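Need a sequence for this fold. Nothing fancy.
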């Protein structure tokens, strides 16, 4: 493992499988009456969020507290950032406090990389989402969910996603989740197909390690997992498709389309879901949809990342099993 987690593209197959295997051990903690490990006792972690977040921020905070770390939550609103303080000055303030790790979400692509390589702070940096660039822990929790569902929990240890067909549908242009998943799934051996209208595909998509299609119906029968993405209107400054109704008709997932997917396949969504647009309530509430599982798995993955960056470089197998006896 490297010292920081900035991009899913930085992870080797061995790094990724180590995190997934460690997360399986961390998931066992959730089944205990007392959901705590002493691993990071005495360590201080700052959640530095310059963008609004619900799932990611709460998930990181839960993971940190389950590992017994001291947690400081920092939001741009109500802080000196709203008065014009720079990222450098904020980082140097945190450095003066002696923090051990910074979990950062920022609207500017590259901000976590800048923080990690600037020399402003001597702490591990974990990217919790930067602009339209990367969201590595989301890709890891998605891969963890796929491996559990498509490979199996016990059989999955040490395994990747080789031979699995994953389809990602929707607003690829503005999605850091799509970019991170393409990078990580390729590393783990999966075959990825992106499905979107041409206006919602980024320039240079032909260099990505995946296939591109404009026809959702043609890709569904061969998909082991279909990930639906929300249309990110907050990042749009133009009309990228005619109407919501037209978008739903071409690229939305409803019960009829889900029925064309192979038996045992799953439907994923990173959240928040816009029901009735990219996904219908029938699909979102079905047994095939893993959206809630992804939230729960996010805590286990983030525990694993924090453990490996701050606690140890080997799977937490011995550590957690010793406590279970």
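Here you go.
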């Amino acid at each position: 493992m490297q010292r920081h987690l900035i991009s899913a593209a930085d992870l080797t197959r061995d790094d990724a499988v180590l995190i997934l295997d460690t997360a399986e051990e961390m998931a066992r903690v959730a089944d205990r009456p007392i959901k705590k490990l002493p691993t990071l006792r005495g360590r201080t972690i700052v959640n530095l969020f310059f963008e609004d977040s619900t799932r990611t921020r709460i998930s990181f905070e839960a993971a940190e507290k389950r590992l017994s770390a001291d947690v400081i939550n920092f939001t741009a609103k109500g802080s000196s950032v709203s008065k014009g303080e720079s990222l450098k000055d904020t980082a140097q303030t945190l450095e003066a406090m002696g923090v051990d790790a910074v979990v950062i979400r920022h609207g500017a692509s590259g901000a976590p990389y800048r923080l990690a390589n600037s020399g402003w702070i001597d702490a591990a940096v974990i990217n919790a989402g930067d602009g339209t660039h990367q969201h590595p822990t989301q890709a890891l929790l998605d891969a963890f969910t796929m491996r559990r569902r498509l490979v199996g929990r016990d059989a999955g240890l040490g395994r990747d996603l080789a031979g699995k067909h994953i389809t990602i549908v929707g607003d690829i242009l503005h999605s850091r989740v799509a970019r991170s998943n393409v990078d990580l799934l390729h590393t783990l051996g999966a075959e990825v197909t992106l499905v979107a209208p041409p206006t919602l595909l980024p320039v240079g998509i032909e260099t990505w390690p995946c296939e591109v299609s404009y026809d959702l119906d043609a890709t569904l029968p061969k998909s082991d997992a279909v990930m639906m993405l929300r249309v990110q209107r907050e990042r749009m400054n133009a009309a990228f498709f005619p109407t919501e109704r037209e978008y739903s008709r071409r690229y939305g997932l409803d019960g009829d389309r889900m029925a064309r997917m192979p038996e045992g396949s799953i439907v994923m969504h990173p959240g928040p879901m816009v029901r009735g647009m990219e996904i219908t309530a029938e699909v979102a509430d079905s047994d095939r949809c893993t959206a809630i599982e992804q939230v729960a798995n996010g805590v286990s993955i983030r525990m694993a990342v924090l453990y490996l960056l701050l606690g140890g470089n080997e799977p937490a197998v011995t550590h957690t099993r010793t406590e279970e006896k």
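For context: Residues 8-134+294-324 form a domain with the Rossmann fold fold (CATH 3.40.50.1370).
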